[in-house]
ABC transporter permease
Amino acid sequence: MTMPPHPTDATGEAAALVEDRSEAAADGSAMAAATAIAGRSPARAAWMRLRRDKVSLVALTVSVLFILVAVGAPLLSSLGGWGPITPDNNAINPDTGNYPIGSFGGISLNHLLGVEPGTGYDLFARIIYGMRTSLLVGFLSAVLSTVVGVVVGLTAGYFGGWIDTLLSRIMDVMLAFPQLLFIIALTPVIQNSLQTNEHGGTNENLRLLVLVLNISVFAWAYTARLVRGQVLSLREREFVDAARIMGAGWQHILFRQLLPNIWAPILISFALAVPANISTEAALSYLGVGVVPPAPDLGSLLSDSAQWFLQDPTYLFIPGILLLILVLALNLLGDGVRDALDPRANRS
């Protein structure tokens, strides 16, 4: 006669079955998580960390907005019907020294940010064209200085010996220079020696090229020093030795083995160089050795607004606050990129 299963045995078997299923589910979840982590590229992991940083997202949004406005400056200014050097004589009063007519520097539907005292130029058009100039110089000088710094840093760190000694001494000399002072001294000399336009002045494109070159000449050493230090710590690693054993040339080792492993600090250096270069360009224009009037530029706007501050303070505050927001957003974005690319960053 067959005895029925004992209640305790049935309960034990059910518990064991539930436990097995729980372990299987846990193992499946762990395998799925491991697969997701293993399939996530470093760039995507950095982007996910950046997305969790609200300050960085706001900075990214503001930076993209400024860039879009600068790129679309011709279209935006045409919508208002005013160019950066198109005067509106009806918006200024010649009896009061060409002071803008109306409140807050002549702000109206016709001139969204008012007009420039003395000239009658539309301030909105001047500002957005000035942003384009500042961003163009900032990005181009950052790209050029980063490229030169990466090449010099790779060469010095990998080859070592007298090449490293020579390039390191050159870096030390460049870092010792008072950057802003030498740019102020060199820019007018170079510009005066360049081809002049039909009005007897330097071509505007050549002036921008001189600014980019002068800023880059004194900025590449920072990136080169950073890259050299990274290469010194990587050149004796196993993957580099394996490449040498397999007969890879120095070009392959530098640009296919070492460079992909140091892209994060290079990107961080570039992100932080852009706002610094924009500030330098604005300072040069403020001092009269950058972009000169009537060409629009934020630095020259701030310089011109100083003499009108008591009569029209908005002429100083509007471009000054916008320049502050632009540089601050780019700096915060650079800090966010640095934290996102650091796998040891503690994110909540």
In short: Residues 230 and 262 are 7 Å apart (CA to CA). The domain at 54-340 is CATH 1.10.3720.10 (MetI-like fold). Confidence is low (pLDDT under 50) at residues 14-18, 30-38. The beta strands are 92-93, 99-100.
